Amino acid sequence: MTGNDMTRQMKAFEQQVQTLPADYQDAWQLIQKTVWSRTDLTGRNLMPIFDGIVDLMTEAAADGLSVTEALGDDIAAFADNVAATSGAQNLQDRWRATLNRRVAKKLGRSL
């Protein structure tokens, strides 16, 4: 997947979200901010996460559910949990892993 592919995919997600009710569109903005904080250097790891969330939102809207019924009261926490469960690490997670590896190396242990 190239940068252009990612750009096209994000535009496709945006177009799909634009067909949803306004509360879903607002939630999408918050979801993007939250999930992008868990990117690797390229962001490619996030495309499947975004795809799943957009599909969930589309189905929930089609079923007539409000955004809070579909995603919960804390949308940022929902997005962060989905990203974390999918294995995407935030900067703090990466720093923690690096620190743990370095400490283990100094102590002569392996992780």
Automatic annotation (TrEMBL):
Source organism superkingdom: Bacteria
Cited InterPro entries: UCP029876
Pfam family, one: DUF1048
Identification of the protein by name: DNA-binding ferritin-like protein (Dps family)
